[in-house]
Amino acid sequence: MSRALRMFAWATGLACSAIGLFHVIAGNAAIPGESDAGATIDSLGRFFGAIFTGYGLAWLWAARQHPVPAQAVRWLAAVFLLGAVGRLLSLAAHGWPHPFQVALTAIELALPPVWFWLAAADERTTRRPAQETP
To answer: Would you say the C-alpha torsion 45, 57, 19, 2 has a positive or negative sign?
Structure first.
């Protein structure tokens, strides 16, 4: 479990950092169907791109710890899940977004339970040897 959690955290960190940097660099062009959204949305998107880059770096930090801190994984997964909740609220308030955003919502709903499960499983296996030592 430890290797799976580490690799999953590493992949998540790389993906989130790359996506965040893409939004910082590309601005509105990074948002499907919104390349002409204007200066306000461009500014907002680039700002949140920087935040998402930091989020990815937090995953990379967690992936580099030995063992991977389960509590950090839970918090990072919860933030990801909160993003999905935000998308669902937007869907309820404004209707269906671009299909790519719908796919992202599905991913954001599906991955946190996997992270929660991996963190709990890894925590059990890393604790067990310490508890069995006399």
So the answer is: negative
Where does the chain have alpha helices with state H?
2-26, 39-64, 70-94, 99-132
Answer yes or no: are the C-beta atoms of 100 and 41 closer than 8 Å.
no
Q: What is the Cα–Cα distance from 4 to 8, expressed in whole angstroms?
A: 6
Cα 121 to Cα 4, 70, 113, 124, 126: the distances in Å are 10, 9, 12, 5, 9
Q: What is the pLDDT of residues 96-119, one digit of tens each?
A: 999 999 999 999 999 999 999 999
Q: What is the DSSP letter of 30?
A: G
Tokens encoding 93: 């308030």
User: What pLDDT digit, counting tens, does each position of 74-101 carry?
Assistant: 999 999 999 999 999 999 999 999 999 9
